[in-house]
Amino acid sequence: MLQLWAAAAFFLGIHLLVAGSSARTKIVGVLGERAWLASFSVLSIAGISWLAYSFNEAVAGPNHLYWAAPGWAYHLSPVVILAATLFAVIGVTTPNPTAVGAEALAEKPETVKGILRVTRHPFLWGATIWALWHIFVNGDKASIVFFGTFALLAMLGTFSIDEKKRKRLGDAWTGFAAKTSNLPFAAIFAGRNQLKTGELGWWRILLALVIFGGLFYGHLWLFGVSPVPGYLPY
Questions:
Q1: Domain that holds residue 39
Q2: Residue-wise pLDDT tens digits, 43-59
Q3: Which of 30, 38, 84, 183 could bond 129 through an S-S bridge, CB–CB 3.0 to 4.6 Å?
């Protein structure tokens, strides 16, 4: 379990204390933007790999169970994870000024469409839903640390990105933020935007369904656990 805590601290540290702080600017000044992105990508992959390995080790060892989720939660899991997958996949494939190198999109009024009407951080909210639901249905210490790392990073990431973009883009970001929201559906409920499902893109939805179907079918093979009780596809 100690190794899992160390892996979690490393993964959060490189994102929050390095990439999310003034240290990033200093490193970019020395290495350059491309070298920084390449180095950070390698560190992120290493961090995720360490987390996954440490999680498997922690689950196999002494691992305290804090609660047992109700039976209905396991059967509801496909619906919740499908929603998370839709947020993540549609979000990644939708042009968004919150993405690295896409800041110029904030100045274009037509940018705010599709999933961005729901939230300006669709991928991070998809990751948050995925992580929090796994914590809820698992209820063990290893899962809280492992999935909690991703949930914490995703939620804090939405605020960190907003702050960095606000400082960098000024009025362009102010206009974009006024028509969107961090919290999903908040701008729609506040009357600052409206939901238009036709703008999501049928191919994005289809892609999300394919990815979800693959993960659902392969979950037992990949992770050793069936996604729903009694489902044994092979």
A1: 1-63
A2: 999 999 999 999 999 99
A3: 84
